[in-house]
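Morning F.,

Quick status update on the modeling queue. The single chain you submitted on Monday has been processed. Sequence for confirmation:
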Amino acid sequence: MPIALYPGSFDPIHSGHIDIAERAARLFERVVVAVYDSPSSKRLLFSTEQRVELARATLQHLPTVEVIPYRGLTVEIAHQVGATALVRGLRATSDYEYEAQLALTNKALAPDIDTVMLITSLKYAYLSASILKEVAALGGDISRWAPPLVVEALLNSRRSD
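Structure tokens below.
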């Protein structure tokens, strides 16, 4: 079975991400969750090291999943780890448009790598890291959307502001 790369900023990882990782782990021999170091289009709350640590802790129950940091082109890190597929999660039509463009760009850069898009579970269809961070910053209960370790990290980041 092939190896898949599941890339993202994971700022922070949440239940929707975990659901996609679990499902990808059933489809692939190995899944490498790749935490992107510095996306130019996002203002990150957590450092790369913190995001990697949170992802590793929340995915440790999946023996065929590993978490690594990366920078540069996603297809380059995919080649480095031997991945033949990229895994992406889709929530809505707007996600599809962006992800299709990204998948086609990656295919042009690396014809040997395919993109597998998994539709999010209905219970996480509205969830994003941005929404999670905003609700946490405003004091809302986020325990249904993230593991306790992530909830605690978000609460601690709120206290340090």
